[in-house]
Amino acid sequence: MRFSTNPHKPTILTLLRPDPKKNLTTLVKAFGECCPLREPANLTLIMGNRDNIDEMSTGNASVLITVLKLVLFILEIPVPAFPKHHRQSDVPEIYHLAAKTKAAAHGPPMLATKNGNPVDIHRALYNGLLVDPHDQQAIADALHELVSEKKNVGRVQKEWVEEHTPLFVA
After folding, report:
1. Which domains does the chain have, with CATH numbers?
2. Span 80-112, pLDDT tens digits
């Protein structure tokens, strides 16, 4: 992926607008303050397209500025990816990663909030971990577990394929 600092590492992909309700700052703090997580993984923050922070809504601008300060000055996360713009040609790859995570059709592990729709996805596919979106340490621990235990990915893929193949193959 064009935005990865080291394309051979797993990518923790965050694709959302910088909305205060999304609790993006807690995710960034969890990643930035967990050295065992920073070493084996890339963090990609795709926070919408933007030209001028002054033209953004107050809430979104505040989140974006806070995230940028955290990444660049406070946590000093080494060369994270947070593109100002993504090209049209990037969209298929970005959405391919996001679609795999959302649909879990290929078994990638997901980390999601323990509230709302992700609970149903997890219950159906058992493909990752659910956490309290306000618990920074739980987020860091869960991300570290997911990126450092590759054996879980293979197990989840195999179990998903065995369970769901009869639904799609006659």
Report:
1. 11-168 (3.40.50.2000)
2. 556 666 666 766 666 665 555 555 555 567 788
Structure confidence at residue 39 (pLDDT):
82
| Per-residue CA distances from 4 to 7, 95, 168 (Å) | 5, 15, 34
Q: Report how far apart, in Å, the C-alpha atoms of 71 and of each of 3, 50, 52, 68 are.
A: 15, 18, 19, 5
Measure Cα distances from 68 to 39, 45, 73, 117, 163 in Å. Answer: 20, 10, 8, 29, 43
What is the pTM for the complete model shown?
0.65
Partners of 113 in the β-ladder: 131
How far apart, in whole angstroms, are the C-alpha atoms of residue 143 and residue 41? 9
Residue 40 CA: distances (Å) to CA of 15, 25, 128, 148, 168: 20, 21, 18, 7, 35
